[in-house]
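=== RUN LOG ===
request id: a7f3
mode: sequence -> structure
chains: 1
length: 347
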Amino acid sequence: MTEAKSGVISQGQLFFLIFVSRTVVSFTNVRAISVGNLSADILLSFAMSYAAALLLSLPVVLCLKKGKSPLKSKILSPIYSFYFLVFCAVNVGRFSYFASSRMNPRISLLVFSFLILAAACYCAYLEIEGLGRFASFCGIILLVVILAATVLNLDKFNILNFYPVWNNSRENMIMNTAVFTSNTIEPLLILALGDKVNKNPSKPYFLGISLAFLSVFLLLLFCLGVLGAGADFRSFPIFSLFQLASFFNTSRMDILHTAFWVLGVLLKCSVLIYCCVECFKKPSRKKRSIISSAVAFLLTALIYYAAQGYIADYSKTVIVAFFVLLVVVVPTLWLIFSKGEGINEKN
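=== RESULT ===
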């Protein structure tokens, strides 16, 4: 009876939502979001980013448990809503860049971005139950596809491809750990959606994050074990891994990579726009969804053109700084100095 309650999603649906949201980030251009060489030591950076993501999520989880949410502040909610839209723009922009460069170079990046955001606008307008069911579908299929891609590449896996193990400097490893960690916006998702889960949202959150990092770690492991040094020259190494996976040397799996990347990006953008919409009460929900999607599209265009200039050199530092400020520092201060009612504490 609890899971049928209107206006909420189950723990399982939140688990898949978190899993898909975090996994789809790494389906994007790995070379663009990392520094140095794509060598074996990047696996250590990714493993450390998992530990950092869990540790840095604790302030948000405690805020949720005690009913202290900075998203409910009239001053902070516009800042967080903008942060949601920036992440939405970054994710849709990365996929659109892939689509325009690999699928159909004759179609502009902005055309793909518009189509995805238009669909995300409609999805965000719907209630949370629809997004929960969509997340379950995407999550189950995504797990099957990831496992299939790794199993079908077992015969190409060579341990010698991991040598030399250490190719990056200590500074690059630290930066990679920070960048991988800062691509985790999921703590803020549970802060926005916590009261829409029928039971304690922290359990499915930690499980979803753990499975997402494990899945991406497996993909990166196989990228290095199969592609070797060649992975460093691929703009989309995970896509290349799917291209090499085939059934009886006839059917490649790169179409599945693209298809479920589309679904994952659509789900994540829909959830981010939904969270942005939830930060405001006026105007109507429909208008809020349209305005948020339009702002996300403008941000996508701005980020795309800015990335072609010198601003791109500082983008990683800016993303890390905003993550630390909005996901760690502000929730920690809010936890200490604000008064909560414990409204989100559930069994």
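=== NOTES ===
The mean pLDDT is 85.
The CA atoms of residues 85 and 93 lie 12 Å apart.
=== END ===
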